[in-house]
Amino acid sequence: MKKNNIPGFVELAPVVLTLILGLSSVATAANYDATYDLFCNDCIDWQDIGAFTDEWLGDCNLVNNWCGGADFSEDGKVDFVDFGLLGQYWWSGFLDEPEDVNWLDVMSSENLQNWQQPAKLDEFVGVHPRYLLTAADVTALKSKIASAGTYQDIWLNVVKPKADNLKSQNPPSKYWDEDDMRDAGQGIPYMALAYLLTEDSNYLDGANHWMTTICGYPEWDGDRSLGAAQCLWGVSLQQR
Hints:
By secondary structure, the chain is an all-alpha fold. It has 11 helices and no strands. 49% of the residues lie in helices and 0% in strands. The longest helix is centred in the last third of the chain and has 21 residues, at 178-198.
């Protein structure tokens, strides 16, 4: 991996979204809210996931009806804020709860096999970083953490100390334990962000070490929990 390639995971976003939603707890029929029924079939299901990912990272406004309704927060972008809102109503509208979802079935489902990248994401191809942050965002953040204020406080009291602590450690090793795997996945982005803001290769080496180590585990808490989703998220942010 090149040191200037700490990308996001635009290509993997639909997979991550589908995996995490498949692992989430289900809502009840009484929780149904038509606001989140993008496919308009009186329930929140995989067809709504397809409609949602088609608008992922879209520029939203009143003219396009907030990206066809996918920008639930109406903040101008379809992102994880909206994903969190959609997740609260997952599988609502049904009279019966769904059978337990096996992520291997989800990953091989027809929805994923037929998924095509929306044209609006073409501008991000080959651009790094590109998902949670752009190069312009990184430049702006470097300036903000150099001056007294909220950003500098977060950098000095949260992000940097966390990254400094993690870069010299091994990731949690209990691959069968959900809490350990959630910690493993959550640790990588701290080091990746610290590298982007400082260009200190020690942070990059630490992030790579965590990524390659956890990718060598035989499983992430059975590959079907929030621990597994967190590992997938952390690795996807770090790898190309």
